[in-house]
Amino acid sequence: xxxxxxxxxxxxxxxxxxxxxxxxxxxxxxQYQQVPGAQEHPSxxxxxxxxxxxxxxxxxxxxxxxxxTICGIPLGIYSIIVAAMAGTYAYRLLSRPLQPIQPNKTLxxxxxxxxxxxxxxxxxxxxxSLVLYxxxxxxxxxxxxxxxxxxxxxxxPPPL
Length: 160
What we know:
- By secondary structure, this protein is mostly helical.
- The protein has a domain at 41-145.
- The protein has 6 helices and no strands.
- α2 runs antiparallel to α3 (73-93) and α4 packs antiparallel against α5 (120-133).
- The longest helix is centred in the middle third of the chain and has 25 residues, at 43-67.
- The chain is elongated, with a radius of gyration of 26 Å.
């Protein structure tokens, strides 16, 4: 069978040809590295994630403290729920590989309402998170992460 597109010596050993060198094994982390210069998370998104982690710890400890008081059990349960939501949201926000995730404004509102337990940090984190969710860079990042065609680096805010 002759193929007019291939030369006759295709696939056969030629006398001056170096022997086949098998590539050394590279672990998974070295094979699939991030593209240099690509930014994974904007600094605003990292701030939201770090605030959620800190709030999860503070709200969890405050919730445990409220549960030990007889009258504060409902407040403790609410604070622990906020802590669990903040922890899982921060985990999903910082996870690898990136998965689709929406801005969690419900968590930010629950953090603001968590002032009923006396947690001032949660109030501040909730307000700051709501402000950061409205930033154009953060909106573009969530649009990019959810598979919409705009890349965070290509986003240009609309003219006023």
